[in-house]
Amino acid sequence: MAELRLQELDARNAVAANSLMLKPGQEAFIEPETYAHAEPQLDNANSWPRVVVDGDDVVGYIMANFDPDASEEFLRAALWRINVAADIQGTGVGRFAVQAFADEARARGFRRATVVWASGEGGPEMFFQSVGFTVVGETPYGENLGALDL
Length: 150
Hints:
Layout: E1 4-8, H1 14-18, H2 33-38, E2 47-54, E3 57-66, E4 77-84, H3 93-107, E5 112-117, H4 125-130, E6 134-138, E7 144-149
Parallel strand pairs: 4-5
Antiparallel strand pairs: 1-2, 2-3, 3-4, 5-7, 6-7
Protein name: N-acetyltransferase
Pfam family, one: Acetyltransf_1
Domain N-acetyltransferase: 4-150
């Protein structure tokens, strides 16, 4: 791996971000039901879409939302989505992206970051726990609500 860096999602890298190939079965975990229902509450001014770049290649995508006034605490500093190309999962790209998200949340004055995920074989639970999220509750849809103290 060359040195990883973040770039804002834009017209130049959006196709590459949308073309990231995940491991078989991971598509089922891309958007938890809770986020599908909460999406109308998002304010685009508070969204934080970024790609992870290695050299000239887009190898990951992360989307977060930062809204200190969100009605639900879990939407205030929320990791909304993280995708890493299948062939490089396990090499630190996801950890790098989550650390960048946590750094951004901290810089914006948040003391806690959250993420929602569904359990299941091939799902993201082990990853989220390995980067420091702990389960602090369950959503009305039966998904895990994870928190990372900043």
